[in-house]
Amino acid sequence: MLEIEIVETNIIDGGIEVFARAWRNGLQIGLGADGTVDIERFRFINPPVLVKDPNGNIERVYEFVTESGTETVSSFYREDPEEALLQSLSHSIEIVGLSGDNIIAGKIGNTTDTFYSSTDDGTIIRQTEATWAGARDGATGTVGQTNPEYAMGEYIVGSLYRVARFYVSFNTGPTIPDGSSISSATLSLYGFNAQGDGFSDSIHAVKSTLASAPSLATGDFDGVTFSSLASATIASIGSSAYTDFALSSTSGISDTGYSNYAFITGLDLNNTTPSPQGTRNYKYFYTFDETGSAQDPKLVVVHTSGGGSPTPLMMLMGMGS
């Protein structure tokens, strides 16, 4: 069980800042890069404002393609910025939390930043190709920006091949100061309730290059690197929950502009032709919701603030949320 004490909250440019400490099953969680932080500064950029509620008055209708055809699913939300922030804070703490054995009482962390994706995230798909090479190695594709997307996936239908790559961009530059030392970064996608039958395949986070970030263009299809930064098997990716991809390299995090990533299947990554015919390998994920929900793609970055001074403890003591 996770318990959180919010010591202070502040409105900042583009979002909100929260100073907090946390406990899991009665034991305090160590925060910061080395687990020595008692009270961490969490910043949320472009934070969500909607939470799922079966009795909510905001309806979202999602359309997706299955083996049996096109289906629609409705979800209901309510506008509750405080609860949405608490859900996001809880998930971020679960991602970055460490053992509390090394906590230094009163130590204030520099920053754990949580970024939500831009309105232009989505899939670029190349389809109806007669060969696997024609689908995978093409330079252009068709841009789709619905919600949800088969956030990645390539599969074979009849004698035709398709490859779909899901792109996400986070505007990290204005928030992460130049010269910051980044210790970790985790990308998280929220699963939707549809997937293919190729459960032995995997999903990989890779760097991407966009011609005009964060906008997607047809020519961005080949703007991916085939070097996996993190992965999960399709069978292990749940629905109605986040899957966290802890990046093995933080070199793609920008302190000057957008941090751009893509999610692709293992067959795409390794250039393995899917077989037999009819094999489908994909998983749906939520994309950015125009009003902002607690299921949007997110990026959590732990870093020092480029030489900034920590907040004195006396400024925080006695203050509540």
Give a description of the structure.
The protein is built from three helices and 19 strands. The chain has 321 residues and is mostly beta strands. It has one domain. A hairpin with a 2-residue loop joins strand 6 and strand 7.
**SS summary, helix count:** 3
What order do the helices and strands follow? EEEEEEEHEEHEEEEEEEEHEE
Number of domains: 1
Low-confidence stretches: 306-321
Structural class: mainly beta
Number of strands: 19
Tell me the Rg in angstroms.
20 Å
Question: Any chance you could write out the topology, listing elements then pairs?
Answer:
Elements (H helix, E strand, L loop, with lengths): L1 E11 L2 E10 L2 E2 L11 E6 L4 E3 L5 E9 L2 E11 L1 H16 L14 E6 L5 E8 L2 H5 L5 E3 L4 E9 L2 E12 L10 E14 L6 E6 L22 E4 L8 E5 L11 E8 H5 L9 E6 L12 E6 L18
Parallel strand pairs: 4-8
Antiparallel strand pairs: 1-2, 2-3, 2-4, 5-7, 6-7, 8-19, 9-10, 9-12, 11-12, 11-18, 12-17, 13-16, 13-18, 13-19, 14-15, 14-17
